[in-house]
Design brief:
- The chain has about 450 residues and is of the alpha/beta class.
- It is built from nine helices and 21 strands.
- Strands 5-4-3-6-7 form a five-stranded mixed beta sheet, sandwiched between helices. It has a four-stranded antiparallel beta sheet with strand order 11-10-13-14, with no helix packed on it.
- β20, α9 and β21 form a beta-alpha-beta unit.
- α1 packs antiparallel against α2 and α3 packs antiparallel against α4.
- The longest helix is centred in the N-terminal third of the chain and has 17 residues.
- The radius of gyration is 35 Å and the shape is elongated.
Length: about 450
């Protein structure tokens, strides 16, 4: 047996006032009496001016001592060896499916929070906790803290999102931390039955529920109709779909769905409809996928710049789209090009890439181009393609302007979780240290 909170032993100090109450005499009270005849035998006893008396064994005294001992024992939180011990990483799936509710009306994320809080209560005071929230992009609300009250608040404040979860990114960070922290345990709270881990534990949440989902909705104004796809994730049932045009109900359709079946539904629209909302009329386990929206598409003319030395085949391929206006530029004129929706570089790349628009590199000449929907992923691809080797440990210097200091906190937390020593200029260091990111200040 061991004690998760040894500091609870301070409660034994409560024995001091208990003992004092039993050895302190009651102060003598002066009273006027008509005769001293009955008081003479009291003269042989100790005078009442002495404040203390001999401690005698009393049942009530022993009961009070026992009560203090039991209270102290409880505050020290005894636990048997083999339970939850050591530093831990708690990863939460915040995808849309975690909003699904069970037969008692409790969401899967709430079930996950309850399990995590019970696990948190079983940790020792010195055990550090890291919390990773795997939403569309994973975040790190808490990094290696033994302030369990802070970790509890972070867990309670988690909210599900309406998209997927970057579980892969969160697990990658947790595994990187395990390489530097011996005995680090990883727990994943998710409803993804397909997820399996050999280096962590999965706290599965969620029970099978009846759910129908609208996969998408589109407008087809040329035919005066709208189209939606619905899928049944439960037992065979009838699903009623309502279609609203510009906020007014315009059509209702009922379809029969077998278990696991996906089907399309067509609705009639009034003329000049601009927006469409399709809803599932019946409640199910997940409300987030019961509605889809569509708007009338306006054919927009796009501009593309083709930088080439004479690739006529590429020029003709781009010209097949009637909505695309293609301008040609020689490789030497690419740097001075105006703003375009699409830049196509054939066998050449400018020294400075455009700040807006999409970029397509065809037959690059050796330069590395990282392309992605996010800056950080594109940067990582570019650096990796150029042969840059990312260090897994060491030190990092952070110095940012005031407007970027809040973003630097998240970056610092991640470097700290990976075991890096952090150095920063004085202003940045003050902000990081105030947010519990251990940082060494250097002179500007």
């Amino acid at each position: 047996m061991e004690f998760l909170r040894p500091s609870g032993a301070w409660a034994l100090l409560a024995l001091i006032p208990v003992i004092l109450l039993w050895i302190l005499k009651k102060r003598a009270k002066r009273e006027d009496v008509p005769s001293l005849l009955l008081w003479k035998r009291m003269e042989s006893e100790a005078p009442q001016s002495k404040p203390f008396q001999k401690l005698r064994s009393r049942l009530l005294l022993w009961l009070q001592i026992l009560m203090v001992a039991l209270l102290t024992f409880a505050l020290m939180r005894p636990a048997t060896t083999g339970g939850t011990q050591g530093d831990a990483v708690l990863i939460f799936d915040l995808s849309a499916s975690m909003q699904a509710v069970d037969s008692q009306g409790v969401s899967r994320l709430e079930r996950a929070k309850k399990k995590a809080l019970q696990m948190l209560d079983g940790l020792r005071d010195a055990d550090a906790v890291t919390i990773l929230a795997a939403g569309a992009a994973f975040e790190q609300p808490v990094s290696r803290t033994n302030d369990h009250a802070l970790a509890r608040r972070a867990i309670e404040n988690l909210q599900p999102e309406n998209g997927g979860s970057d579980m892969e990114g969160a697990l990658a960070l947790a595994r990187a931390m395990r390489r530097d922290i011996e005995g680090l345990r990883v727990y994943v709270f998710t409803d993804d039955a397909s997820l399996s881990l050999s280096d962590g534990a999965i706290a599965a949440v969620g029970e099978p529920g009846e759910n129908r989902a609208l996969l998408d909705a589109t407008m087809q104004p040329e035919s005066g109709s709208a189209f939606a796809r619905v899928k049944n994730y439960g037992a065979a049932c009838d699903a009623t779909l309502e279609c609203y045009s510009d906020g007014a109900l315009c059509d209702v359709r009922t379809v029969s769905l077998a278990a696991g079946e996906e089907t399309g539904v067509r609705f009639s629209l009034p003329e000049n409809a601009e927006t469409v909302t399709v809803r599932l009329a019946d409640d199910d386990a997940l409300a987030a996928d019961n509605v889809r929206y569509a708007v009338r598409e306006v054919a927009a003319q796009r501009r593309a710049l083709l930088v080439t030395s004479g690739n006529i085949f590429l020029e003709r391929a781009l010209g097949l789209d009637a909505r695309m206006t293609v301008d040609l530029a020689a490789p030497g004129d690419a740097q001075t090009a105006a703003a375009y929706d699409l830049y196509v570089y054939d066998g050449v790349l400018p020294e400075t890439l455009p700040e807006s628009g999409a970029i397509l590199a065809v037959n690059p000449t050796g330069e590395v181009l990282g392309v992605s929907t996010s800056f950080r992923e594109a940067l990582l691809k570019g650096l990796t393609g150029a042969g840059f080797q990312m260090k897994k440990k060491g030190a990092v210097l952070i110095s940012v302007r005031d407007s970027d200091k809040q973003e630097a906190i998240r970056i610092g937390e991640r470097f700290e979780a990976l075991g890096f020593d952090i150095y920063a200029t004085s202003g940045t260091a003050n902000v990081l240290n105030r947010h519990m990111v251990a940082t060494n200040s250097i002179r500007n």
